[in-house]
Please model this.
Amino acid sequence: MLGNLAACYFYAYAGMQIPVGIICDRFGVRRPLIIASALCAIGSIMFGCSNIFAIATMGRLLIGLGGAFAAVGTFCIANLWLPIRLFALFAGGIVTIGMLGAAGGQLPLALLVNALDWRNTMMLLGGVGLIITVLMFFILRDPVQKFPDILQKQRMPLFNGLKQIIRNQQIWLLAIYGGLMFMPVSVIGSLWGTPFLMHKYSISNAEAGSMIIMLFFGLAIGSPFFGWFSDRINRRKIVMLVGNLGALLCMLGIIYPQFPEYFTVVLLFLYGFFCGGFLVCFAAAREIDASKNTGVNMGFMNMLNMIGGAVIQPVVGYILDAQWQGIMENGVRIYVINDFQIAFTIIPICLVFALLILPSIKETHCRAITATE
Model:
């Protein structure tokens, strides 16, 4: 049930990616992003107030619906304001800011929950979200000079851009690669990593959260670095390969050996750092499909990423339940470290499959390529 509740965010997020892309391509980003921010805030408050599982699920879905606009909206802003050669670096910068937020959801959030309880914490964060919504209303603007492009798109068939993306095999490969690379982040960083480390090292949730936070710091540093480095050497695939191999080796070290805590902290940071290399696939997708359908393109890519996260969360939960040895504490199931290691075997499998996809992906050399290339 916990896995499915956590996955509700990803269901809503993934399901909205293509509609979000179509909306941003046709109508700009200002109004959609303001509405989306409000949905996130309302969903957080609803989640904090809920006493019924169905209402908690609805709040989680609203957070996912609002959050669905975040990455695609900012990618569209980058496409409107920046040259294509800076897209990879900007995408890494987006992830850096996002991962700092995710890092705040580990130790700082655990301490806040311990101080206020989880309900008041969620309502407090919802209030912060409403303040952000008001700030966006007064600050965020669509570039006036781009309005003719938006008006032109309004006269085009609604799903014209989507058809172009779906028919592009390379976009599919890049999206699947990105989804496989993101799956471990959703497992370790979003839900199961903290209880895994608590059992592995017999530590508190706050201590485990302080270890998981290093994964997000690694992502925050690795994402812009690999974006910059990829632009610098005019290569995409080699960067994705290095990131993939590094992430795989680090993840094997996190899951199976009984290293000291400090060494696992280093591995978590390095895993996040190397995982940042997969963000280059968004820039490659932008270059392979150089049309003005940036929103649909990025939405399709992000959708498969989130589908991976939505699928793997409950799968890990089902495997844990299958391995459960009947141990209970205060009415809660207790899993031993071997249970987690068996369930987490799916993580390196995902990374290996991502590695096998790479040879089939075209090298763009950091420039828009034609269909004949």
Notes: The longest helix spans residues 169-201. Residues 2-139+149-359 form a domain with the Growth Hormone; Chain: A; fold (CATH 1.20.1250.20). The longest strand covers residues 328-329. The two ends are 48 Å apart (CA to CA).
